[in-house]
Amino acid sequence: MASNNSSELSEFASSFEVNSYLASYSCLLIFLALPGLILNGLVAVALVGELAKKQGRAQWIILLNISIAGMVTTLTSGSVSTSRLILFNNVHEGVEWLCRLSQAVFHISIGIRTVSLALLSVMVYIIIKHGLSKVKLAPLIASVVILWVVVVISGLPYLTPAYHYEPFRKGILICDTTLTRIAYAHISLSIFFIDAPARLISVITIIAAAVHVKRNTVTDFNPIKKSLLRFSVILLCINILILLANIVAAFAFVLPSGADVAVLIWLSLISNIAIVLPTIVVPILMMVLFKPIWSAVKGLLMYRRCTSCICTLGEVSTGHPAGSKGVPTTASSLYY
Questions:
Q1: What is the C-alpha to C-alpha distance for residues 71 and 79, in angstroms, rounded to an integer?
Q2: Domain ranges of the chain
Q3: Cβ–Cβ under 8 Å, residues 127 and 228
Q4: Global confidence as pTM
Q5: CA 336/CA 325 separation, integer angstroms
Q6: Yes or no: is domain 2-334 CATH 1.20.1070.10?
Q7: pLDDT, tens digit only, all 336 positions of the chain
Q8: Using an 8 Å Cβ cutoff, are 139 and 110 in contact?
């Protein structure tokens, strides 16, 4: 068995340098998955603190939802990258479940980010046109729960025989996938009933919000609405990046059986980078565009202590309780 693995490794080395393979996935783990997990974790903690306040909970719930999805994505990518390094030239039969589970989790995390951006876009449009009071907390939470349930269910077919996996090729963990008719139907349904409608809703609502702001800039100027609109436009660009990640990942499904292992490895690496990269960009944008998030994250990094059990963002950033003279409590203080 050892000699067989050695010969397979030498074949692999002829088309793809072993050191390059190990270095690539080490960099993915160290420079993308780990920073993405830390950034999303910090932002999630900041948003949980902000939810302790009564003001502006609606947008924080959706942003927290996006951060949680980012954490799930980075954890999965980090686990798969670590497994690729540990199991290099060390074949294990039970690893097929790692392929199934990672595919399902990637599907769910990308789906949650996509529908969350659509939900945020709708909320931004409502706030810009009708005001924050029109966004009700209970329906919003119900919508988030329903979307999670739908997206999680849509990811379960990856755990079934509809997808056939060949975990190892020439001693390398690549999770080569073969699709059945049921798998093609599953992907088509996911695109037409989840992915495409969510992206279409995002585009339509953001354009509608931008048109409304342009028509009412003089008579109804509000810095909160402007910040929300700017954030939504940026998120729309990130949505396009996520779409490109989906397209890149889809190439792995259409390659012919027995495709060159080097092609599969490069495709898997590019797909992982495209999937994980938004998990770094999004939390950075949240900190840049939303003042309370940056204030709370900065406080966490500086290890500031609060006198109460639960620190509100105002306490973390200034040391004063929210509502005191040193902390503005107007809605305009939520954004730069």
A1: 12
A2: 2-334
A3: yes
A4: 0.79
A5: 20
A6: yes
A7: 444 555 555 455 544 456 777 788 888 899 999 999 999 999 999 999 888 876 667 878 988 998 999 999 999 999 888 888 887 766 676 788 888 999 899 889 888 988 988 998 898 888 888 877 788 888 999 999 999 999 999 999 999 999 988 887 777 787 888 889 999 999 999 999 998 999 899 889 988 888 887 777 545 555 656 666 777 788 778 777 767 766 766 676 666 556 677 777 777 788 888 888 888 988 998 898 888 889 889 888 886 554 444 444 444 444 444 444 444 433 334 444
A8: no
User: Please, how many CA atoms are within 13 Å of residue 240, restricted to the half-sphere of its CB?
Assistant: 6
Is residue 323 within 8 Å of 329, Cβ to Cβ?
yes
Mention every residue, 6+ apart, whose C-beta is less than 8 A from residue 104: 155, 156, 158, 159
293 and 47 Cβ atoms separated by less than 8 Å: yes
% helix, strand, coil for the chain, step of 5: 75, 5, 20
| Chain length of the chain | 336
